[in-house]
Each structure stands twice: as C-alpha cells, then as structure tokens.
Amino acid sequence: MPGLAKQLKKGADLVGVLLFLATFAGIILQVFFRYVLDSPVAWSEEYTMIAYMWTVFWAAAFMVKEQDHVSFDIVYDSVSAQTRRWLAAISLVFLIAAFVLLLAPTLDYLEFLTRRRTSVLRIPRVWVFAVFFVFLIAFAAQGGWRLRGLLSRRWPDYI
Amino acid sequence: MLAEYAFIIMLIILIGTTVAGMPIGISMIVSSVFYLLMVGRDVGLASEQVLNGIFDNFVALAVPLFIFAANLMNAGKITDRLLDFALAMVGRLPGGLAQVNIATSLIFSGMSGSAVSDVAGVGKVLVNMMTEKNRYPAGFAGAVTAASAVVGPIFPPSIPMVFYALISSTSVGALFLGGMIPAIMICLALGTLVVVMAKIRGFPVENAIPLRQFPIIILRALPPLFMPALLLGGIYTGAFTPTEAAAVSAFYALLLAVFGYRTLGWKEFLDVVIATARTTAVVTIILGGAFIFNYVVTIERLPQAVFELFQQLDLTPAMFLLLLNVLYLLLGCVLDVSTIMLVVTPLFIPAAAALGIDLVHLGVVLVFNMMIGLITPPLGILLFIIKALNGIPLGEMIREIWIFVAVLVALLLLITYVPDLVLWIPRMAGLG
Known about the structure:
The complex is a heterodimer. Chain A has helices spanning 2-36, 43-62, 74-78, 81-113, 126-151. By secondary structure, chain A is mainly alpha-helical. By secondary structure, chain B is mainly α. The longest helix of chain B has 34 residues, at 266-299. Chain B starts with a helix and ends with a helix. Chains A and B meet through helix 1, helix 2, helix 3, helix 4 and helix 5 of A and helix 1, helix 2, helix 3, helix 4 and helix 13 of B.
C-alpha cells in the first residue's frame, strides 16, 4: 500500500507540473505571437486562465497538505500538543461540514454551466470549473482522514 | 433571528478556525458557507464567487509567475553571480559587506516581488559571508539582511501590489512604478546608516578591486541585470501587461539557468515547478477566499459603515493616513501580508477615495508599511526565516533591528506626506 500511495502521489505531482507548465506556456505563446510573429491571438488569455484554474485546484487537492497552507500560527504553535489536537479536530469538523454543504449546490451550479460557453474558445464552462468539485471532495476526504487520526490513539502522528 | 447575528457568527467562525490553525483562505470559504446558510441564500454562491473571482482576473496570475521567476533564480544561483558586481561597486565603502547586502537586495527586488525569496536566496549567502571568521556580529548580519529585504515588494515587481490592484481597481503598472523612488530611498538610507554604524563599531572594509577588472565584472553581471531592465522597460512602455512581464522574466531566468549557466538540471527544474505549483494553490486560494468573504462584507455594507464612521470623525486626509499607518503597523506585526491586503484594505478604500487620497499613493504607502511588519520583533517573519536558515539567535537580531525599523518608519512618514515621491514616475509614464 505505501508503494501504491507513493506512486499515486508522484503521478499527482506530475499532473500538477504539466498543468503549471501549460499555464506558463500559454502566456509565453501570447507574447511570442504578438511580438515575434506580429499576429496577436485571441484564444491565449482564456486558454491560460483555464489551465491556471486546473493548476490551482488540482494542486490544492492533491499536492498541498492542509497544514502547509499559510496560517495564523501564533496561538497554535504556543499551546500544548493535547490542546492542539482538539483545536485541529474542532476546526476540521467545521471544514468538513462546510465542504459537504457545498457539494450539492456546487453540482447545481456546474450543471447550470453545462449550458454556458466561454467567450472565445466556446468550451462549456463546466469544464473550466469542474476541477473545483474534485478539490471539494478530495479536501473534505483528507480532512475526514485526519480527523479520524486525531481521534484515534495514534493522534500525535496527525497533528 | 439567526440571520440577524449571521455576520457576527461568521466572524467568530473565521477567527476561531484561523486561530485553531486552519489556513486563512480555507477559513474564509468555510465561514462564508455558514453565513450564506444562516441568511438563507444559495450556498452555491460561495463556489460561484471563488471561481469567477479567480477566472476573471488575468492579473492575479502574475503572482504565481513572479514566484516562479524568483524560485528559478534562486535554484539556478543566478543572483549569486551578482555578488562580484555588487562587491566591486560598494565593497569599499565602510561596512563593505553590509553595503553589498543592501545593493544585492535592490537588484534582486527588480526581479522578484517577495521579501521572503530575497532572504532565502542571496540573503542566506550574504549572511554566511558576513559571519565567516566573525567579521561581523551575527545579529547585525541578520538584521541588515532582513531590513534590506523589505525593498523586495516595494521595488517593482511586487506581489502585494498586484493584490492591492485587484481590490482597489488601480493600475498594477502605476503601483509598480510608484514603488521605485521609495525603494531607492530605503537603500540610500540603510546604506548611510551602515556607514555611520561601521565607523562607530569599526566594521571591516573589503579590498578595493582594481579598476582594470571592472569591465569584465560588469560584463559578467549584464545577463542577470538585463532582467529587471526588461521587466521595468516592458511595464513602463506598456509593452507588457504585468502578467506577461512576469512570464517573460521567468522564461528569461529559465534560459539563463539552463542554457547560460547550466546550473539547473532536470531534477532541480522539476522540484522548482512542484514547489511553485504548491505555492500557486496556496496563494490563489487565499485570493479566492477573499472574493467570497468580500462579497459577504459588501452585502453587510461594512465598507459603507467604515466610510460613514470616518465621515463622522471628520478627519483630514493627513489624520486619516496617520491613523491607517498606525493600524497597519500593528496589524503587520500579527497578520500575514496577503490577508491584510485582501481582507482589511477593501474596508478603507471608499473612505480614502472620498477624502481625495490618490489610491496609487495609498497602495504604495500600505505596502511599504506592511513590509516594516515583516521585520518588527517579536513576530517579524523575516527574522524567523533567517534564524531557520542561518541559525542566528533571534535575540541577537532583535537587539540590532530596532534602529533599522526606526529609519524605515521615518521614511514611511516621509512618503506618506510627500505623495510626489510615489506619483512622479507613474505620471511620467502617463499612468498617474
């Protein structure tokens, strides 16, 4: 299992790398077409922003641990491990609740977006934002996993 | 009943979860969901605001790209190549290596928009050089590195200025150019302070480099120096949007590190991209969270209330700016820069505009102000990073940093009350 988990993590990282480079390439191409080929293209900005959306929420879902985000850690770092355990557990309950509450309305919104297209590339907008739904599920699931750990006897591993 | 207290409850959830360690971007989304639920609005608005907020702001993408450029330069050791150049230029002044430290910070800030990457990259190398053989007290070396790193986001490009532009609808280009004179003033002031301290405390001077070596040293420094020139020139003339300028400088850094200096292999490149993708997610989610949070704040008419409060106080613009400066100096000591910029600043924009304060001027003043928070003890984040990277005890740095903080606060007041120091260059570029 650890072997498989490691492979999955590597795969997720690789997808993230490709998405980021796809975003980067979009702007470089935009500049290249305008200044080198002297024929600006209309699609580049929209394409770049789509790749950017996917980079952000893919990386947030599969590449960043919740603990790695910037946070206000003055209080959290100065309390005992036991207090920290309960602080983390309570805030995870809020996080999971909010993300689960968001699932159905987000699906509704995405469903509405199947009928909307982006202005230049004419792609159904649902494909631009669908990655956000993936992020909600992955982030809530990781939260649940960590909460379970915090409530178990091996809780120090999950702080 | 619940709806009346919804906003208060939301703030309690926001502050509670953040203090309990939840990332601020996530807690803004979480607390907004509960708010929408309590007031009986569609909870899906949260997703809608976050997604459209990001998707519709092409300028936001400049932030990860500037981070990418700085990461590439640090991994490719491009900035280290500028050390010889800085040493030749200012090494013979009293406190030579401290002067080199200040000069490289200014050059580096022309390529990066973040103070942290300055401290983590070339700052780390310089602290090592300064403390080798006990030539400088470790605390002083750390303090001068931290103090000079604050020019990073003041001299263009600048990540906090991109955030400010997003929430105040000002031009990123104008803000960038507005930071130039204040940043140069900081470097001159810090340089002068170091001269005085070096004379009193007998700091060493570096060996003068013979003049005939100058052409070769300058020639070697030209490729990395070309980058800030490209960036500033591109923005000044309007040839590049900030997002494009960020991408072009990352591309240039990539070429330099891979083909020019061959300091960046495949493995290092991959690590840089993974690290950048992670930071991209973290920073953008704070931005996304701010979109839904500010949407709620607007429903609650909070900026309006702040505006009316200031109207009742009947403040002059000068008093308003003073009040804001004091508030931000305090906030800067406890909250991180993007949070203050995206969450607190929107509250004051309408009041500032009504008082006739130029919003570009205000942006540069606020960014300058928050940079002081990064080095103010006991919580200044830059001091902690230097401690982690170079092992200098916090106490020793804190003893040395106060005088630098005092000089920076004096300069802050100067640019607050002489707006032309900020606005002159943007006006010349036709952006003011």
